[in-house]
Amino acid sequence: MEAVNTAVADTGSGEESENGAAGTPGTPTLGQVLLAVEELWPESLAEEWDEVGLVVGRPTATVTKVMFAVDPTLAAIEEAIEWGAELLVTHHPLLLKGVTSVAATSAKGLAVHRLIESGTGLLTVHTNGDSAVGGVSDVLADAFGLDNVVPLAPAAHGLPEEGIGRVGDLPELMTLGDFAARVFEILPSVAGGVRVAGDKDGLVRRVAVCGGAGDSLFDAVRASQADIYVTADMRHHPASEAREAAVDGRPYLVDVSHFASEWLWLPAAAEALGNVLADQGHDVEIRVATTNSDPWDFILTPG
To answer: Where is the segment annotated Disordered (predicted)?
Structure first.
């Protein structure tokens, strides 16, 4: 995958933020970047079980470079450090569950040490980045060419456009085989490829999507009357039960890589943050990591 750069013009002076002292003219503090992030992906949209927000970093530190990645893996952290980023924004949390130690004897502890020792902050934008307008599933819906897009599971306390997943319509009917090929071509290449359940020649128009693991949303998918559902990490039992309950074979299923389904959001997120910071008069260089954090290296298939 190619790196994506978003350069933001220097058009202002560093006014002091409530989250941190002012940086040099045009250069924001981490606190000011956090305010821009909150404008785009409010923490209030995160699911109750989720852990989002600042993980490592001083709000008063200045930020000239920001890198986006799907996962806070050691490889992604090293890429950010090597580039000189003062902030790494990842979709997935580093510390989703409670820990009692961040000693460098564990991978997560080493990650925390590398970040702090290098002066690189870490920020998590997870389910708030899923639910927000322009979030992960919005980007997928746009990439697949869907019209009349609405949330698959609307947010309980948010705008009508906010929520988990999206459902919309293709401009014209497509066969399942052709639509699956479109999905395969659009997503980053990974070892697992794309798995499909349904009649290859079956026709589809209404499409439900959910970036990341979405096999808990089958009730919402059925209620949306989608012909097909695209998500990641489909487990055996939910997928099997969905096929057993299918009407005329629908919804068809397309199972993709968790990493690949969420990577598409990164360039859009980088551009969105760059635009907000530029509007606020800040000068920041933003890049998407080239690190592929899909955990699989190869796959064996019949034939």
So the answer is: 1-28
